[in-house]
Amino acid sequence: MIADAAIRLATAADAAGIARMSRDLIEHGLPWRWTVERVTRTIRDPNTNVAIVDDREGIAAFGIMFHAEDDAHLLLLAVRGNAQRTGIGSAVLLWLEAAARTAGARRIRVEARIDNDAARSFYNEHGYHERVIRSGMYSSALAGVRLEKWLRGEA
Ligand SMILES: CC(C)(COP(=O)(O)OP(=O)(O)OC[C@H]1O[C@@H](n2cnc3c(N)ncnc32)[C@H](O)[C@@H]1OP(=O)(O)O)[C@@H](O)C(=O)NCCC(=O)NCCS
Asked: Is ligand 1 within 6 A of the CB of residue 118?
């Protein structure tokens, strides 16, 4: 399912909420790298799109995509626990993919923890292929998987 969600670009006022969601939903068990300061810098970075979906409880989902020439890198994507599995993550991903296409990206790359079955299933569902499995991608004890999706013309 893909939710019909209203998606907007983040402002600096969203940084604390995004940073908290990153810490709790993505970086749990690891040092907190996506702090409020880093998220604020990222929101202001012209090479990055930070997309948000709001609901009555606040930020329901966000995604951060970095653009470098014809490659795009999905840095973070998360949906609040009680809003998961309603198609909101898909809506944010498709919105960021469309923005990447418009910016000229040929490929989107993303990483996930190897034990993150939800994310791996989600990205596979959206046409991402698992390319590399690397031990210690996140920490000495935590392996990760690198995925990618070609938007046009695989090299
Ligand atoms: C991964 C994540 C972003 C998916 O967002 P979501 O809004 O729940 O996903 P959607 O509802 O759009 O799901 C689309 C499809 O992905 C797959 N999927 C999503 N969550 C899944 C789960 N927990 N288990 C298995 N498949 C799943 C399913 O195929 C699903 O389609 P279906 O519901 O019709 O079966 C969300 O689970 C999340 O925020 N997780 C915590 C943070 C995280 O791991 N982020 C990704 C790494 S940066």
From this structure: yes
